[in-house]
From TrEMBL:
Protein name: Protein-glutamate methylesterase/protein-glutamine glutaminase
Localization, UniProt: Cytoplasm
One Gene Ontology cellular component: cytoplasm
Sorted UniProt keywords: Chemotaxis, Cytoplasm, Hydrolase, Phosphoprotein
Stored InterPro entries: CheB-like, CheB_C, CheY-like_superfamily, Sig_transdc_resp-reg_Me-estase, Sig_transdc_resp-reg_receiver
Gene encoding the protein: cheB
Naturally occurring in which organism (per UniProt): Sapientia aquatica
Amino acid sequence: MKIKVFIVDDSALIRSILTEIISSQPDMEVVGVAPDPLVARELIKKTNPDVLTLDVEMPKMDGLEFLEKLMRLRPMPVLMISSLTERGSEITMRALELGAVDFVTKPKISIQSGMMEYEELITDKLRIVARARVRTRAQVLADASKKGGPLPSMRSPLISSEKLIIVGASTGGTEAIKTFLMKMPADCPGILITQHMPEGFTKSFAKRLDSLCQISVSEAEGGERILPGHAYIAPGHSHLLLTRSGANYVTELSKAEPVNRHRPSVDVLFRSAAQYAGKNAVGVILTGMGKDGAAGMLAMRDAGSYNFAQDEASCVVFGMPREAIAIGATNEVASINDLSELVLNYLATQGGRALRV
């Protein structure tokens, strides 16, 4: 059974290139194309696609407005096609909030050769997106209402300064990370995050989170002392690692080769946490395709850390958590809406005080 793909893009060249790429795959077919959402709306009803590729900026109706209507009236898996610009990255972050599963970036120059070089990436993402759990607009709003505000203060400077929270995610992770961080109190332990995301998007992602959370969120620059109440996100161009400088934990960036086809890689971050933090670390693995992070999380557990995984029901793609669970790397499995409280309760219990009885 072939994956039925519908393409929405105002560029005839992009539509042609995507059609060529997708049609060359034995397990995919293009069932329709449209230059704008108004044309797409009627054709989608007729072709009943499994997955939609959607441009961000288009005439007549922009991608965000169309996506919001689509996820309310006819929810389906959507892969955004985004430009490598600051505006494009901010709009893409908003699209993921509205229910898009993932995105692919358009190259800045030489679009035709650039897009053809993306063939494997585009087709791999389409396969993942087609199988992903779609969040309807109603579910997005319901989840938002459940999030609530930040959890109570840790009230323990020792826990906040000695402990670390180490997070890894991929497909669907931007929203999962947002849910996780928005509940963190201003004095929570320092948090290191690797989210599979290309260069140019991690800064916008961090900026967006920083505006929503009580804690400070920034793109890691390397060499920063890791402070309580701060989260550091791996930049799209480098691996993020934990290391030490004297008594302090600090960030380190590396442009070493991709691991599990990713740079930044969750395994790289988790292994560094195992090496330098051991039992002072709490690991969290969230939604994502593949196995990146599983082996690193097992190394963390072997070094004494306590680890959590997002459950299948709340994952967009239950790949990375499933792999970590399968090899015995995790201690607890829970919904994304409960993970923040469980992590903080575990840390507070280690210090002799529970957040909730």
